[in-house]
Design brief:
Keywords: Membrane, Repeat, Transmembrane, Transmembrane helix, Transport. This protein has 22 helices and no strands. It has about 425 residues and is mostly helical.
């Protein structure tokens, strides 16, 4: 192991420590690590900060602004009314329909949207007690449904991360189909929906107490836009999605179509420039752009290839691809859950898995896709934002929580691994 490798490892470990301990604001540790990589001569400044000119990051930043605009549409109010109507009917059919409605809403907001699951759980906690469908059955199932899009059109963040880690690891896999990546998400969501249906009778049946967030959820209202502005906002969203889908055919134009959509939203005053600036400079974007430089630095020292070859030798040449991908998914999701740092954990283990696949002569696309998505699919412990809020609002005992979440955890990862390997054969 060379001196540059050792220095790169020390800087990377230091970055991970800062991310997991939250010693610095989210998004800042990778930037500091990039500066240190340049200071110690591991890479030049252009390489270290090359993530900010990465076309995928440009696309992601624009899409973050579009999501902010969508939250101003009447969709939110429609969503609220639909949930209240479903819950008031009670029974198994209402239970399933409520879960599906939440999953349809997730399709617009995307996987892991904090604003969406907080809004969803806040609304669910205000639904009056109904013996046919008590709140304890609603909170658990519909709460986790806020992490699973039924129509996965808004997968830009995860798709961008997959592309970024593959490029940073030097994996020559060509253009990755956004449609195929969306189908992987769909397989995962359908597996979750199937488990939710099967788990209906396993969920506890009790009322939930009123919580402090109830008043906030009831009083929260979205800005009312004129009909023509709403229509143009939906058009801007659709235009951006079409650009991402057709990117492999139309080239760089596909990357900038979300940016043009944001320009339209600014021109018609759906968003002001401050809102756009805050969205495109969000901590998630800083994190994503920063770690690309770190991954490039690790690759330039030969460390990534060395780790991949070492792991490959340990696993042997006859390792089943399914077991390989599934093992990395478990490792990533477990540590993401324990540390609360999804992106940080994904950016650590995805390059290792990619290098391992390359060393074994396997196409790493399936591994990259599954590992990135797995970072948002732990939730078996109530120590992260979403599961902690679900357990608290639902007034669940830990054993009741585990009866739902532990089977859900393994079912989701098995489906995710199978879906990734089906769409991206190794």
């Amino acid at each position: 192991m060379t001196t540059p490798m050792i220095i790169a490892i020390i800087i990377t470990v230091f970055m991970i420590f800062l991310i997991m301990t939250e010693k610095l604001p989210f998004g800042a540790p990778p930037l500091l690590a990039c500066l240190l990589m340049v200071l110690f001569g591991i890479v030049d400044i252009k390489t270290a900060f090359g993530g900010f000119s990465n076309p995928t990051i440009v696309m992601l930043a624009s899409f973050m602004a579009i999501i902010v605009a969508l939250q101003k549409t009447s969709f939110i109010e429609t969503f609220k009314k639909a949930m209240f109507n479903m819950a008031s009917r009670g029974g198994f059919k209402a239970y399933v329909l409520l879960v599906i409605i939440v999953m349809l809403g997730t399709s617009l907001f995307g996987t892991g949207s904090t604003a969406y699951y907080v809004l969803t759980l806040g609304i669910l906690s205000t639904i009056p007690f109904n013996e046919k469908l008590p709140g304890s059955k609603i909170i658990m199932s519909s709460g986790f449904a806020a992490n699973h899009p039924l129509i996965p059109v808004n997968v830009a963040l995860q798709y961008g991360i997959v592309v970024a880690v593959l490029e940073a690891a030097g994996a020559a896999v060509g253009k990755i189909s956004l449609v195929r990546f969306s189908i992987v998400n769909l397989v995962l969501s359908l597996a979750f929906l199937a488990w939710t249906i099967l788990a209906y009778k396993r969920l506890p049946s009790h009322a939930i107490d009123t919580v402090e967030e109830k008043e906030d959820a009831q009083s929260a209202r979205v800005s009312t836009l004129p009909k023509w502005k709403e229509t143009l906002t939906y058009f801007a969203f659709a235009f951006a999605v079409v650009g991402m889908i057709l990117q492999s055919r139309i080239g760089d134009a596909g990357y900038v179509m979300p940016g043009l959509s944001v320009a339209l939203l600014l021109a018609i005053n759906v968003m002001d420039f401050k809102e756009i600036r805050d969205a495109i400079c969000s901590p998630i974007i800083l994190m994503s752009a920063g770690v690309i430089g770190i991954a490039d630095a690790l690759g330039s020292t030969g460390l990534t290839a060395l780790v991949g070859e070492t792991v490959a030798n340990m696993l042997g040449s006859n390792i089943n691809p399914f077991i390989l991908v599934f093992a990395f998914c478990i490792l990533t999701s477990v540590l993401a859950t324990l540390t609360g740092s999804t992106l940080g954990t994904v950016y650590v283990f995805a390059p290792l898995a990619i290098s391992t696949c390359i060393s074994l002569g396997l196409n790493p696309t399936a591994a990259a896709a599954a590992i990135v998505i797995s970072g948002w699919n732990g939730h078996f412990l109530p120590i992260d934002g979403m599961p902690a809020m679900i357990m608290g609002l639902g007034k669940y005992k830990l054993i009741d929580f585990w009866k739902f979440t532990v089977p859900m955890y393994f079912i989701r990862l098995l489906a995710l691994t199978a879906g990734a390997l089906l769409m991206f054969p190794m």
